[in-house]
Design a protein that fits this description.
7-stranded parallel beta sheet, alpha/beta, 318 residues
Length: 318
């Protein structure tokens, strides 16, 4: 029996890794090349799919309800915020993702942003290029032994970050995650304690209804003056209006941001005026190896779902 697998969109050079996984199986791969720029086109392309692979396409309730025989929706990502999981579950459609393909890369990128903004590396680089070499321009910089690092979200990436930073000499490493009970290397605290005690806050929570805009004006109001904020998780976690106000009000000493509400450049421009904000283009996940691993593991879960009954990383078991 032939299975139709539709790839709605992707940012990779080609689908060769997927085709290599599907070789030997009766799978017809339909590459939509990211051309499904309307909901109607997305619905037409996926209607008769047995499995749908998606990166950024909006798999909302209307699109999912239109699926006639789909068994699996799998995303090229850790997060599942583009898929209406409730709608998929109601139709007995399995939802999967790849939560472990870039743990090392994202934790390393968080550290890179953290060190760059707290040591003011990019700021001083810009000054030196203008002929300004006075170290006093970087004042203040604090010793790690006086700093408390707070981690929001203590899954694979948050825990890996804590492990890597355990020997950096921080006064204290704490985390908030209501779904995790873990004793090391960070100490579990409540959300309000994390906000009020942290000198650096690094975000590693998924984007859900519960976490959307959790770093809002109220949260910024509970933070120390001069805190640093790092986000390599999801842009939706931060209320960007409140973030801009916190930067203007000097609540934040700086920020390292890899993700925003919008992937487009326009969504980032409002922060260009802050020389204490370091911006990268949603690249924390990337290495040559993670790139290929993501494609391969996504395709493997299609095979697992269609031929073995369930994918390895089944997010909505029923």
């Amino acid at each position: 029996m032939s299975h139709k697998v539709v790839v709605t969109d992707y940012t990779y050079p080609n689908l060769d890794p997927e085709r290599a996984v599907f070789e030997g199986y009766d799978i017809e791969l339909t590459d939509c090349k990211g051309l499904l720029d309307t909901e109607e086109k997305l619905m037409a392309a996926t209607r008769d799919a047995d499995a749908v692979i998606v990166q950024f396409a909006d798999m909302n309730k209307r699109v999912i309800d239109n699926l006639q025989k789909c068994k699996l929706i799998v995303r090229y990502a850790i997060g599942l915020d583009v898929i209406d999981i409730e709608a998929a579950t109601a139709k007995k459609i399995m939802v999967a993702h790849v939560p472990d393909y870039c743990t090392d890369e994202v934790s390393n990128h968080a550290i890179a942003l953290l060190m760059a903004v707290t040591r003011k590396v990019h700021f001083m680089d810009s000054k030196v290029r203008k002929g300004e070499q006075n170290f006093e321009l970087a004042i203040p910089i604090r010793r790690n032994s006086e700093i408390t690092l707070g981690i929001v979200g203590y899954g694979r990436i948050g825990k890996t970050l804590a492990r890597k930073l355990a020997n950096f000499g921080y006064r204290r490493i704490i985390y908030f995650d209501p779904y995790v009970q873990d004793t090391g290397p960070a100490e579990k605290v409540g959300f309000e304690e994390l906000l009020s005690e942290s000198d650096i806050i690094s975000l590693h929570a998924p984007a859900t209804n519960e976490t959307r805009n959790m770093i809002d004006a109220e949260a910024f109001g509970k933070m120390k003056q001069g805190v640093y904020l790092i986000n390599t998780a999801r842009g939706a976690i931060i209320d960007e209006d409140a973030l801009e106000q916190a930067l203007d009000g000097k609540i934040l000493a700086g920020a390292g941001l890899d993700v925003f509400h919008s992937e487009k450049l326009e969504g980032k421009k409002r922060f260009f005026r802050f020389d204490n904000v370091l911006i990268t283009p949603h690249i924390a996940w990337y290495s040559e190896q993670s790139f290929k691993e993501l494609q391969r593991k996504t395709a493997e879960q299609v095979v697992q779902a269609l031929y073995e009954g369930k994918p390895r990383y089944w997010a909505n078991p029923f």
